[in-house]
Amino acid sequence: MNAFRVPGAAKWAALGVVLAGAGIVLLWNGAALASELDAVTRHRVVVVAGALASLGAFVIPLVIARSQLLHPRALWLFGFRPLSIAGAVLLTTLVGPALLLVPVALAPLQLWTGPAVATATLAVPLIVIEGVFAARIGVVIGSVLLHRPRVGALIRALAVLIFVAGALIIVAHLAPTLAELLPAAWWPTVLVVVVALAPLRDPAIADTLTALPLGAFWRAPSHQAAGDAALVSQDFALGALTIAVLVLIWIASLAYQLRPTRRIPRERAALVPGWFRRLPSTPVGAVAARSFTYWARDPRYRTALAVLPAVPVVTLLAMWIAGIPFSIATLVPLPLVVLLLAWGTLHNDVAYDSTAMWTQLAAHTRGVDDRIGRMLPVLAMGVPVVLVGTVLTAWAHGDWMIAPAVFGVATAILLGGIGVSSVISANHPYPATRPGDAPFQQPQVPGASGSGIQFGSIVLILLVAAPAITATVVHLLGVPGPWVWLALAVGVGVGLLAFASGIRVGAAAYDRSTPELLDFAARH
């Protein structure tokens, strides 16, 4: 009763009772009208309406439930056995709005005569039992969705669409009969409605809906009236299976609600920053979490990502001005994007750490853990870029046979870029923009600016991809042979070799010169 003390709760409850009563009256009047329909139309209307009613037994509690009237754990504290708790909770379900299932299940009885009446009478308690379990599951899920408003809003919108569509299908089948009962003066207007709803009377739509498991008990009397005993048995078997599935789901939800809370593992501290909470508590995970955080929050890294979408546009525009054929120009943007992603900041990643480099020295982080952790964000972004970019490039090129070659070149640049950058950042760091400075602000330090190191690292990456690029060019020149597959093989093979060698050599260089790297990063 405490729920009714919430302002407006009693008004909404009263409105719900009135609407439910009006719905029952409308359903019974509609059942009386459906008795005038032909056998096929009556079958479709009854089964679709019944399936919507059974679905509503689940969806309505799912949408409106805010909490469970009697939580199973409340009875668990008094020493009740699980079976007794299950029975008590199900009884409380019948006390509430689920009691309306009884008049809903009884409504079709006025449609049938002869043996079909007995079948419909047998189906009534089964429909109610099915609805009670569905309602119970809906309440449990609805109480959980209260804490997930976005998912709840999506489910509400989907439920409204389903019920509106089902109601329109029922009205479409009833419209011709209703039109005959109206005065002749209304026929011109009603005819427009009947014609507009005609597509919804398509047998394929109705037959699909009437075959759903939720309508099994509702269609059994119709099959009995048609004299098809085999289908009646099949309907009751399918309905019983549906109830069994609902019972199993309910038992599973009850067991979950009654689980001992002492067995629930405690979550990691909520104060742990985002990526450190998502990745494992290992040296590689710690370095990777810090690198992911850099890419997500550091302007120096985000600027590199912001430039990537503009690369294809600028490249294609420049080649169009230069008069290069479009089919050739489309092959260039993907390698450039992958090159900038794999090389952009990773080749000087140590210098970007600045004074934070001391944390790894204090933790005695091994070089191989550092190299792998730093390259994981680039690999995580680069793999989707290569996969999606290969498909788009082949589509824009107009020949899907080029796809293996494009993939080989892009993979060689991605893996080769990571491998070369892993060596360069440990052996040849150069002054980088300090944390907090503008991304394009150049550090004011004497000596070389690092342009030679940048140029040299790009050349090394292109050398790794050179065999795949050469095979692709030979294919484009029209030379017979499996050049695209050769480009794929050498691109992936040489890329993996450069990747593994770069991680190994870069790790050894990092272990050998960690103090010097810390001194350099702190000064620059």
Outline the structure in words.
The chain has two domains: 35-259, no CATH class; 275-442 and 449-523, no CATH class. The relative contact order is 0.07. It is elongated, with a radius of gyration of 35 Å. The protein has 524 residues and is an all-alpha fold. Helix 4 (82-95) crosses helix 6 (115-145). 74% of the residues lie in helices and 0% in strands. The chain crosses the membrane at residues 12-33, 45-64, 85-106, 126-146, 153-175, 236-258, 304-322, 328-346, 376-396, 402-424, 458-477, 483-503. This is ABC-2 type transport system permease protein. Keywords: Membrane, Transmembrane, Transmembrane helix.
Task: List key phrases describing it.
524 residues; mainly alpha; 2 domains; 0% strand
Helices and strands in order:
Elements: H1 9-34, H2 39-64, H3 72-76, H4 82-95, H5 101-106, H6 115-145, H7 149-181, H8 187-196, H9 203-210, H10 216-225, H11 229-257, H12 274-278, H13 283-297, H14 299-307, H15 310-322, H16 326-329, H17 333-343, H18 349-353, H19 357-362, H20 367-397, H21 403-427, H22 451-476, H23 483-512, H24 514-523
